[in-house]
Design goal:
CATH superfamily of the largest domain: HypD, alpha/beta domain 2
Structural class: alpha/beta
Strand content: 15-25%
Largest sheet: 5 strands, parallel
CATH class of the largest domain: Alpha Beta
Radius of gyration: 21 Å
Number of strands: 11
Number of helices: 15
CATH architecture of the largest domain: 3-Layer(aba) Sandwich
Distance between the termini: 28 Å
Mean pLDDT: 95
C-alpha cells in the first residue's frame, strides 16, 4: 500500500538495525513519550531487535491515562444531574474513578454519549436546548485545537447550553517535570509525532539546552521509529544533544501556527494535575475571560473525595519508574475486561499494550 509499505521495508529496517547494533556499547535508555509509539514498538517487535545495551521505556503519553481521578469523579458527579448530557471520547467510559466509572453510570441510566469529535457535542447541544450538554475535554496538544474550535463555534452561534469539563494537558511541562525529578535515567527522548505537528520544535528546546539530552520527533511506522532511535544514538555518540525531526513529512519546525492561534484565543496556560505525577506548573489550560461561562467547573455538584487503588502502579508506569510486569495486579485482577487503572483501559495505555503484546 503506497505511503505505508515504504515505511515497512525489511531491507531498510535491517540496515538501520545493523547501524544501531554497531553503535557504542555503553548503556542507553530511551523513553518513548507517546502511547502510539509504545503500541508500534510492541506491535513490530522493535524492542527485541535492539542490542541489549539499548533499552526503551514508556512515558506519560496517554491522555486517558494521565487524567486524574479527581476529574473523572467530577464528570461522574455532573452526569448524575438530571438536566445534564455528558459527552466524552470512548476510552474514558471504562476508566475507573474513585468508586464508579462512566460506563457504570451509563448502565444505571445516566445520559452519557460517546462522541468522536468535539463538534459532535456542539450538535447535541443544538438538538437538546433544554439540557446542559457537557463535553469531558481530555487530550494533549493534538486535540486542543479542535476543542478550541468547538468553543469558538458555540460562542459565534450563541449556544448557551454547551459546557466543557476541561482536563487537557500540555506535554512539554510534563517532560520538564520528569527530567527535573531524575527518578529514572533517560539518555534520549522519542518525542510524539502528532503533538509535535501542532507544537513544532520550539517548546522542546529545554530538553537539549537545559538537560543536555538528545530528542527526536519520530513517526509511528517501523522505519520511522528505527531511524529515530538511530538519530538518537548518533547524537549520544557525538555528544551533540539537540531536538531533531525524523517525521519531516508531517512535522515542521514552526509547527501549526493556525492551530496554536485557536488554542491561544480560547485558553491560557494553567497548572495541571497529572495522575501519578501530581500538579505540574503550566501543564494545562483554563478558559480566558470571554469563554469562562462555558466552564463546567462552575457548576456546584457534590464530588466524592478522590482516592486511588492502593496496589495500582499506573502512576509509576506513567513516569517510567515501573513496568506493568512489576505490578502484582497485572494480568491477574487487572486486565482489559476488568481494568483497575486507566493504563489498562486505553489502547495507548502501557499496561494494555503489555497485556496485548508481551
Amino acid at each position: 500500500m503506497k505511503f505505508i509499505d515504504e515505511f515497512r521495508d525489511q531491507e531498510i529496517a535491517k540496515g538501520l538495525i545493523e547501524k544501531i547494533k554497531k553503535s557504542s556499547s555503553k548503556s542507553i535508555q530511551l523513553m518513548e513519550v507517546c502511547g502510539t509509539h509504545t503500541v508500534s514498538i510492541f506491535r513490530y517487535g522493535i524492542r527485541g531487535l535492539l542490542p541489549d545495551h539499548i533499552k526503551l521505556i514508556s512515558g506519560p503519553g496517554c491522555p486517558v491515562c494521565v487524567t486524574p481521578n479527581s476529574d473523572i469523579d467530577f464528570a461522574i458527579a455532573l452526569c448524575r444531574q438530571e438536566d445534564v448530557i455528558l459527552t466524552t471520547f470512548g476510552d474514558m467510559m471504562k476508566v475507573p474513578g474513585s468508586t464508579s466509572s462512566l460506563q457504570v453510570e451509563k448502565a444505571e441510566g445516566r445520559d452519557i454519549r460517546i462522541i468522536y469529535s468535539s463538534l459532535e457535542a456542539l450538535r447535541i447541544a443544538k438538538e437538546n436546548p433544554e439540557k446542559k450538554v457537557v463535553f469531558f475535554a481530555i487530550g494533549f496538544e493534538t486535540t486542543s485545537p479542535t476543542i478550541a474550535v468547538a468553543i469558538l463555534h458555540a460562542r459565534q452561534e450563541g449556544i448557551q447550553n454547551l459546557f466543557f469539563l476541561n482536563s487537557q494537558k500540555r506535554i512539554p511541562p510534563a517532560l520538564y517535570a520528569l527530567l527535573q525529578s531524575r527518578q529514572v535515567k533517560i539518555n534520549g527522548l522519542i518525542l510524539p509525532g502528532h503533538v509535535s505537528a501542532i507544537l513544532g520544535t520550539g517548546p522542546y528546546q529545554f530538553i537539549s539546552e537545559e538537560f543536555s539530552i538528545p530528542a527526536v520527533i519520530t513517526g509511528f511506522e517501523p522505519l520511522d521509529i528505527l531511524q529515530g532511535i538511530w538519530m538518537l544514538v548518533k547524537q549520544i555518540e557525538e555528544n551533540r544533544p539537540s531536538v531533531e525531526i525524523q517525521y519531516k513529512r508531517i512535522v515542521k519546525k514552526e509547527g501549526n501556527p493556525l492551530a496554536m492561534e485557536k488554542i491561544e484565543t480560547v485558553f491560557k496556560k494553567a497548572d495541571g494535575n497529572w495522575r501519578g505525577i501530581g500538579r505540574i506548573p503550566e501543564s494545562g489550560y483554563r478558559f480566558k475571560e470571554p469563554f469562562q461561562a462555558m466552564d463546567a467547573r462552575r457548576f456546584e455538584v457534590v464530588v466524592e473525595p478522590s482516592k486511588e487503588h492502593p496496589e495500582c502502579l499506573c502512576g509509576e508506569v506513567l513516569q517510567g519508574i515501573k513496568t506493568p510486569l512489576e505490578c502484582r495486579l497485572f494480568k491477574k485482577a487487572c486486565h482489559p475486561e476488568n481494568p483497575i487503572g486507566p493504563c489498562m483501559v486505553s489502547i495507548e495505555g502501557t499496561c494494555h499494550t503489555y497485556f496485548k503484546y508481551q
